[in-house]
Amino acid sequence: MRVIVFFDLPTITNEDRRNYRMFRKCLIKNGFIMMQESVYCKMITSPSVEKSVTSLLDNNRPPNGLVQLLTVTEKQFSKMKYITGQWNSDIIDSENRVVIL
By its UniProt entry, which InterPro entries does this protein fall under (predicted)? Predict the structure, then answer.
């Protein structure tokens, strides 16, 4: 499954810009990758992880602006159509887990 976060935050005042930076850093720190400007996604493994991600974002939400969450399955995500451009990510994004002992 994937959690997709859409956000539209004000950047008028210095405090607004600070809140924007803090929210964006929270997303990146917690494993979200940028799909496009103000749209980030993260692969999750179960509904319980979805609940923890939702509570994390709820605890770190900015005071102003709009933040939306959408959870889709991998099958739904793979059916995404690109009208212009293509998916480009330097980050390996797979369900495989590597354990090095």
Answer: CRISPR_associated_Cas2, Virulence_VapD/CRISPR_Cas2
